[in-house]
TrEMBL record:
It comes from the Bacteria. The lineage of its organism: Bacteria, Pseudomonadati, Pseudomonadota, Alphaproteobacteria, Rhodobacterales. The chain crosses the membrane at residues 45-63, 83-100, 106-123, 135-153. This is Tripartite tricarboxylate transporter TctB family protein. Keywords: Membrane, Transmembrane, Transmembrane helix. Residues 6-153 form the DUF1468 domain. Pfam families: TctB (PF07331). The keyword Membrane applies. It comes from Jannaschia donghaensis.
Length: 162
């Protein structure tokens, strides 16, 4: 079985466990006044688990490929050195660093640095494009979360007093 199908099988198993938790365990502790709401806190996890299960099944069953040629385009796990494993590990380390600096550096600073560093790592070299797009994306997401949804998200580093 190809590597993409093994990954899809793993994702399917995780999605089944996540879906079980979303459908059967999350709603048990809801207070009575929330049990009459049309949208519960478990609504998004339920939708996410169903969609993930459908996508993983489509990959497992090979529905996403129009014409399958064995060996062509598959990841050969015996030749992992030929792929950009270092770049992937660096990107994972960058994501962990982003998660660790999110609270102390603030959302805007850490997100802009993550987006610029991530795009640089993936091969983008047009700084005049990377920086404004990162600023716009981080600012837009912060505005939506903070102002539209009303969820507090520290925009700047903790020492700036915001």
């Amino acid at each position: 079985m190809a590597l993409d199908r093994w990954i899809a099988l793993t994702v399917l198993l995780v999605a089944l466990v996540y879906g079980y938790a979303a459908f059967f365990t999350m709603d048990a502790s809801l207070p009575p006044f929330m049990q009459r709401n049309p949208v519960w806190p478990s609504t998004f996890p339920k939708v996410l688990s169903v969609l993930t299960i459908l996508v993983a099944l489509s990959i497992l069953l090979g529905l996403e490929k129009s014409e399958y040629n064995p060996g062509e385009g598959d990841v050969d796990y015996r030749r992992l050195g030929d792929y950009k494993v270092g770049q992937a590990v660096f990107f994972l380390a960058l994501m962990v660093l982003y998660a660790l600096t999110l609270r102390s550096a603030g959302f805007l600073v850490s997100t802009v640095v993550f987006l610029v560093a991530g795009s640089f790592l993936l091969g983008e070299r047009r700084w005049h494009l990377m920086i404004p797009v990162s600023l716009l994306a981080a600012g837009g997401i912060w505005y939506l979360v903070q102002e539209v949804l009303g969820i507090f998200l520290r925009p700047l580093p903790f020492f700036m007093g915001v």
